[in-house]
Amino acid sequence: MRHRKKGRQLGRQTKHRWALFRSLVTSLLDHERIETTEAKAKEVRGFTDRMITLGKEGTLPARRRALTFLRSKAVVSKLFSDVAGRFKDRPGGYTRIVKTRRRVGDAAELVAIELVSRADASTSKKTGAPAVPPPSGSGKSA
Question: Is residue 25 part of a domain?
Fold first, then answer.
């Protein structure tokens, strides 16, 4: 029976798995988009949502709880000052997973996990950057 056995083991021992999750969540909150395998991304999604919810609380105990999980004080301050503010009206679902490619070495399914409202995406819309024109076709002239 599988009772109370939530989560994937990912072929790692417990301490290694927790270190992996902490590193991935820290990188995701720092860069706002990372590429990893599908199984890892699905596991990291819940941890990231919990950290953003702590950031939305904004209290000192919430900051201390985030500091026990995340690897960088700079990322915690970014989480509480910038990232949490973007999601203040959103009740959950702060990340999205987009399938990207297969890894060359072992054909593992790679995905990009990203925050739903990324800072660089919102700034490019505000600046009005011109769209990239499509390729000029097959080279034939009509």
Answer: yes
Coil/strand/helix, residue 16: helix
128 part of a folded domain: no
Counted domains in the chain: 1
Environment class of 22 (CB within 10 Å of its CB; exposed 0-12, middle 13-18, buried 19+): middle
Contacts of 96 (CB under 8 A, 6+ apart): 113, 114, 115, 116
Model pLDDT for residues 13-64, shown as the tens digit of each residue: 999 999 999 999 999 999 999 999 999 999 999 999 999 999 999 999 999 9
In a domain, 138, yes or no: no
How far apart CA 115 and CA 78 sit, in angstroms, is: 14
Residue 42, amino acid: K
Structural domain contains residue 67? yes
pTM, whole model, 2 decimals?
A: 0.80
The residues, ordered by sequence, that sit 6+ positions from 56 with a Cβ below 8 Å of its Cβ are 84, 87, 88
